[in-house]
Amino acid sequence: MWLYMRLSLYMQHQRWFLIFSLFVFGLLGAARAFAQQPGPGPQPATHVMAILSVREGITRDQIMKVMQTEIRDTVKLYLDGRIEQWYSRADGKGVVFVLDCKTTDQAKALMDALPLSKEKLVTFDYIPLAPLGPLRLLLAAPPAAAAQQ
After folding, report:
1. Are residues 28 and 91 in the same domain?
2. N or C: where does the chain have the smaller number of CB atoms within 10 Å of the terminal CB?
3. CA neighbor of 116 nearest in space, from 71, 51, 49
């Protein structure tokens, strides 16, 4: 009787170990199949971030001489839907715009028309923005290998 109980307990542990092992190896196989799928390619830009920085050596007085015109032109771009968002930099050294442009050339043309840029008082860095492509993986059907396991 004692031997039967020990053998039964041993077999139960073996069965749970087998089930657990199959589960873990199934997850590993699914992860491996998922990792082998080609990732999404580069996403087309939908917006451009333009980071305005005041040029080295430019004084506050130089900026203030054109600021009223700059503000008026910037607000017009916002009302026309060309500037979707804008923020002042926390370090006080400029502004960040999120522009409704598909290319950096379009964004550059827009920003170069502003008074601060025309007077060569500021510079811009441009960063094309795109939707977060890896989120598409959440919408994709599971890999065939993972579905079979």
Report:
1. no
2. N
3. 71
68-89 tens-digit pLDDT? 999 999 999 999 999 999 999 9
SS3 118: helix
In the numeric block, which tokens belong to residue 138?
A: 């959440």
| 52 lies in the same domain as 32 | no
In-domain check, residue 147: no
Domain of residue 28: give its range: 2-39
Beta bridge partners of 49: 98, 127
At 59, which CATH number?
Answer: 3.30.70.1060
The kind and range of the H/E element at 10 are: helix 2-36
Q: How far apart are CA 108 and CA 66, in angstroms?
A: 19
Asked if 51 contacts 148 with a C-beta cutoff of 8 angstroms, the reply is: no
Q: 60 and 79: one domain?
A: yes
Q: Length of the chain in residues, anyone?
A: 149
Whose structure tokens read 């607000």? 75
Q: Which pTM does this prediction carry?
A: 0.65
Q: Total domain count for the chain?
A: 2
Structure tokens at 57: 């050596």
